[in-house]
Amino acid sequence: MKTKCSSKSLKFQVLNRRQVVAGFNGGKITSDGGGLLLRETARRTGVIRDLAQCFWDGRDGRFVRHPVEQLIAQRVYGLALGYEDLNDHDELRIDELLGILVEKSDLSQPLAGKSTLNRLELTTDGKDVYKKVVVDEEAVERFFVGMYLQSRRRAPQRIILDLDATDDPLHGKQEGRFFHGFHGCYCYLPLYIFSDDGYPLWAQLRRSNIDAAAGSVQAVRQIVEQIRQHWPEVKILLRADSGFAREELMAWCEENRVDYVFGLAKNPRLIRKIEAALEQARQQFEQTGKPARRFCNFSYITRDSWSRERRVIGKAEHLAKGSNPRFIVTSLSAQGFPARYLYERIYCARGEMENRIKEQQLTLFSDRTSSSRMKANQLRLWFSTAAYLLMHQLRRIGLKDTSMARARCDTIRLKLLKIGAQIKISVRRILISLASGYPYESIFLQVYQNLVRAGPILT
Q: Are residues 73 and 63 in the same domain?
């Protein structure tokens, strides 16, 4: 006999002879009670407000129900809370907690649905007279660097900028798609630049029929100029894999007081330079049975592509699987930066940036580039980057000195943001009752206190 149930009463398996009955009749309850911490973070850092200032709204204000800042907030908060698709917002638009996050004055009115948010993403170039909201792309690019500059109370001695390209697989016929032989799929090839302390400074969607370093000089130039306007004397170091060891980028760095340390693809000429060290590492491995590595410094110039000799460091390593030579090229001097230190402590640390990119793609859905227009997909990438920035600010300010200080975005969402809560709204106040059985209450309270102590917008 089939179990009888209705939308008001759902009967589950009994527990110790007691019936287990559920129903969607709990009233105004949300599963995102921890989103209040995101709102506090955004209010104190200006992430949503400053991003909204990069958009121009040409709509007649008399008929506007959803201001641009609220639309952007709804999209960014939605991504941070785990709602990747615009379709999700047709149900989320009645969530009063999300209405509180986006600063909606009349919580009895629904938020924007998927069609309204879609029009926001499609309005990117200002050429369509029927689309009145226009994004200033250069302003958005300056926004991310500005957020980084605003976060520091004083100028650091040195800034390390990590560059990397990754694949964004495509499953439709989007504008600008190409087949990439290395990645084995149709994709975009976005360029990311992060600071070494995790701030996203650049997220540029690119076609994949280009070199990994294409456009990097223009991106770095813009970032460096903006940083030096704020901190004229700061030292800047670029760090990237061998895909960025290109003459154009290295020559620009040398002409503009920017240091670099890039991976360098191995070739027979380079390997011959460290043959003796490789043999020594092999002998040491055979004697000890443990991985052995040695480092070599030498000057090197390519036959055609480089304009000058540059310092190259070779890592002569022998592992159980055999020889494992690696190389980097750098503008840093041997006096101040010994080879082992430069390779192991500075260059290898760039791997942390790859984790940041994975967080965006897997947790904040930067790869949801399914719009037919490339400009719209670029805007989606920026919204994802803004969501990451918001989560990073929460981690940096709110989670400081907690057990979750280095937690990934998905862990923060699961443990800190996904809290059941009941909402009661009256004329005088909005009462949000968080679940009494919430297991991470102590961390939540510590994050709240850290945000309160942070005060207004940081400068």
A: yes
The residue whose two tokens read 């400053």 is 50
Contact 415, 440 (CB under 8 A): yes
Question: What confidence tier does 459 reach under pLDDT thresholds 50, 70, 90?
Answer: very low
Other C-beta atoms closer than 10 Å to the C-beta of 280 total 15
Evaluate whether 326 touches 317 at the Cβ level (below 8 Å). yes
Same domain, 353 and 228: yes
> CA-CA distance, 172 to 149, in Å (whole number)?
38
CA 309 → CA 143, 300, 304, 345, distances in Å?
A: 37, 5, 12, 24
H-helix or E-strand spanning residue 328: strand 326-330
Give the contacts of 318 (CB within 8 A, at least 6 positions apart). Answer: 278, 281, 282, 284, 285, 291, 292, 293, 324
Phi, psi of 195 (to 5 degrees): -75, 160
- pLDDT, one tens digit per residue, over 90-125 is 999 999 999 999 999 899 999 999 999 999 998 766
Average pLDDT over residues 407-417: 96
**Distance in Å from the first CA to the final CA of the chain:** 67
How sure is the predictor about 1, in pLDDT bands with cuts at 50, 70 and 90? Answer: very low
pLDDT per position as a tens digit, 437-458 = 999 999 999 999 999 998 765 4
Q: Please list, in sequence order, all residues whose beta carbon lies within 8 angstroms of the beta carbon of residue 268, skipping any fewer than 6 positions away.
A: none
**Domain containing 37: what range?**
29-135+364-454
131 pLDDT band, cuts 50/70/90, is: confident
How does pLDDT run across 146-170, given as a tens digit for each residue?
A: 999 998 888 899 999 999 999 999 9
Considering the domain architecture, whether residues 401 and 380 belong to the same structural domain is answered as: yes
Residue 3 has pLDDT above 60, yes or no: no
Domain containing residue 234: CATH number: 3.90.350.10
Burial of 116 by CB count in 10 Å (0-12 exposed, 13-18 middle, 19+ buried)? middle
Among candidates 310, 276, 279, 315, which has minimal Cα distance to 294? 315
- Specify the length of the chain in residues: 459
Query: 346: closest CA among 295, 397, 409, 416?
Result: 295
Q: What is the pLDDT of residue 8?
A: 74
Q: Pick from 192, 193, 186: which is nearest to 208 by CA?
A: 186
pLDDT score recorded for residue 126: 60
Share of residues in the chain with pLDDT > 90 (%)? 86
CA distance 452 to 429: 20
Number of domains present in the structure of the chain: 2
324 contact partners, CB below 8 Å, separation of at least 6: 315, 317, 318
